[in-house]
Amino acid sequence: MILRGVAVALAGALVAAAVTALVYGTDPAWVVLEILLPLGVATVLAAVALAARSRRVGPLSWQFALVALLAAVQLGLGAWLLIDAMFVSAHDAFFSALIVGYAALPALWAAWTLSRRTIGDLDRIRAVLGQVGQGRRDVRSAVRGRDEVAALSADVDAMIARLDAEERARRSLIAAVSHDLRTPITALRLTAEGLADGIFEADRQTVELRRMQAQVRALSALIDDLFELSRLESGDIRWSMERIELHQLVHETVDAMRPAAEAGAVRVEVETTPGGDVARANPEQLQRVLFNLIQNAIRHTPTDGSVVVRVGPGDDGEVWLEVADDGEGIAAEDRPHVFDAFFRGGAGAPRSDGSAGLGLAISRAIVEAHGGRIWLADAELGTRVRFTVPQAAG
Question: Of 86, 143, 162, 149, nearest to 115 (Cα)?
């Protein structure tokens, strides 16, 4: 920092001396250089010392005032030295000093005004952060401008917005988990109380025990999905990546889903495009994504409808896979949220399919862990879910 400041002072003194040499000759130029260079270096050293001790100086208003005072002192001292060296008359020297003194006064006022504005903006940001620390999320600093303080304000406001969104998502997640846990736990409690009170006949007890087992399995699956989603989103899971023949993997997955499709009288077909049949991914996790998407498609496709699984080459070293159905489709207001955990379409309507609402969220986490992306593609009829994974090299 010191070397850079000295270089600036030297450059300024050389420029001033060169201009003087062009106008008045070399002798005055040397005088200008001998006066301005030491003065400039001294000012640089004073500024560096002030910057090193700025935290001890106090408020920014004092720091601005000291900078303005340093500039005024440099201006006055430089003018006095030049007047003395050039043998200027006392009359001219008086008015020159008067002008320099007057110029210093507005400079000090300008520094004070600028510091007040900057300090006011910083106080506003600090007050907002204090309110955020107390739990408020509906406040914004909203400092306008193009300077660094305005940029800091924008970053703070963006941070508050992210905190608000994350807390809303967390509250929504807790509410959704509570809702999905309440039903099976209530059923288990009532059944257990009935068995303990002996209100069930002997043959009914076996039926109730089987229902309890089913509820326990559902709870276990929900907890496992929550745990896996948490690990996926935190990046705690690492998989081995392999070269995968997508044509074979897709057909194996579709064949495994055919019984479920036939039970609902739904056709499942595969369409592949040349050039998009080799990917670098984890086969088990990729197949899990396909299972989730195909299962959802079958579930929302009417009788005699169809589900099509497509594979094709993408851009920038990617391949894409798509699951499309000709079902009822997804409402426009629900489309941005379908990959959120526990999302219920239709303004929070309960799910009628018995799912926990984690399949698409887990699918998104798996795809993103592969370095790909997943989205809802435009469809004239039904729903199209498309995702990408890296293409295998060579």
Answer: 149
Closest to 358 in 3D by CA, of 233, 186, 215, 239: 233
Contacts of 267 (CB under 8 A, 6+ apart): 261, 304, 305, 306, 307
Positive or negative: CA dihedral 337, 342, 348, 350: positive
Give a yes or no: residue 142 inside a domain: no
Q: How many domains does the chain have?
A: 3
Mean pLDDT by groups of 10 residues along the chain of 394 residues? 75 82 81 76 72 63 69 70 62 63 66 74 88 88 81 90 83 74 82 84 82 81 78 75 89 90 90 79 90 90 92 85 90 85 56 60 89 90 92 78
Contact 298, 257 (CB under 8 A): yes
**Token pair for residue 223?**
């907890």
φ/ψ (deg, to 5) at 307: -125, 130
CATH of the domain at 175: 1.10.287.130
- Residue 248's CB is within 10 A of a number of other CB atoms, namely 11
Q: In what helix (H) or strand (E) does residue 40 lie, and over which residues does it extend?
A: helix 26-52
Contact assessment for residue 285 and residue 242, using Cβ atoms and an 8 Å cutoff:
no
Query: What tokens appear for 299 in the block?
Result: 């579930």
The pTM is what?
Answer: 0.56
Q: What domain range includes position 19?
A: 2-133
Q: Using alpha carbons only, give the angle 295, 184, 261 rounded to the nearest 5 degrees.
A: 15
Same domain for 385 and 254:
yes
Contacts for 209 with CB less than 8 Å, ≥ 6 apart: 195
* Backbone φ, ψ for residue 309 (5° rounding): -105, 120
SS3 assignment, position 352: coil
